[in-house]
Write a structure and sequence with these properties.
Number of helices: 8
Radius of gyration: 23 Å
Strand order of the largest sheet: 3-2-1-4-5-7-6
Shape: globular
Strand content: 15-25%
Length: 238
């Protein structure tokens, strides 16, 4: 499985980079309910400030056992959804996105982690000599395609980046020799990262955010600004 592959030296190297991004990005996303689809062996929302976090998968040590395209969750109930390498290993990636869209709160955040086919890692996947092994047996989806699917569902991409420019070499010694590609990749070959991290916000057309009543009351009762003579602005002595 993919979680088994994360236990290999190459998988552990990539997992460390993915966790570094998620540990930095998820604390800034607020709400009441968060879910991680898949990879229940790893807590990828460990730095999230959302109190109620659950792992969802068809099997394993999870809080909710379910198929990703049939989530037994209420509509508009989730504030943060993390999809770590879910879409490229599914026969129905678009159906999963539609189901995630259903359960997302308006203005909720979705974070997608996916393998980039336009990278050296995508090239290894397409060559075929590892085609029956994880993660090379996945159907890597391009960043442009995922963005198009999100746009059709009403999501607005808000942030993201690509990581992992070193060739997918199993030898740690050879990965160290190519480590110069990591800082150079962001600058010279940004689209060639092994994995893309994509954040998007669920927008609801015609929705108007209502301020809490105490904020509206405070705005109405805000005193007039005093001028330099100590009198309310807009008033003058008779």
């Amino acid at each position: 499985t993919l979680s088994d592959w994360y236990g290999t030296p190459l998988g552990a190297w990539l997992l460390e980079k993915e966790r570094a991004y998620l540990d930095d990005a998820t604390p800034d996303i607020f709400g009441f309910h968060a879910m991680q689809l898949g990879l229940p062996e790893y807590d990828l929302l460990r730095e999230s400030r959302i109190a109620h976090r659950m792992k969802v998968a068809p099997a394993g040590d999870v809080q909710l056992r379910a198929h990703f395209h049939e989530l037994p969750l209420a509509t508009h109930s989730i504030d943060l959804a993390l999809l770590p390498h879910v879409l490229e290993f599914s026969n129905e990636p678009h159906a999963i996105l539609r189901e995630v869209d259903r359960v997302m709160m308006p203005e909720g955040r979705i974070v997608i982690v996916g393998f980039n086919p336009w990278s050296l890692w995508g090239l290894r996947s397409s060559l075929g000599f590892s085609r029956h092994q994880y993660p090379w047996n996945g159907r890597f989806l391009s960043l442009l395609r995922v963005k198009d699917w999100l746009a059709l569902l009403g999501f607005e991409v808000s942030a993201g980046r690509l990581i992992g420019y070193v060739p997918p070499l199993d030898s740690e010694k050879w990965r160290r020799r190519f480590s110069f590609m990591e800082p150079a990749g962001d600058r010279w070959w940004a689209i060639g990262g092994a994995v893309y991290m994509l954040q998007a916000i669920k927008r609801v057309r015609g929705m108007r955010l209502i301020q809490p009543a105490w904020q509206q009351k405070a705005a109405r009762e805000k005193p007039l600004v005093a001028d330099c003579r100590g009198e309310p602005a807009g008033h003058s002595r008779s």
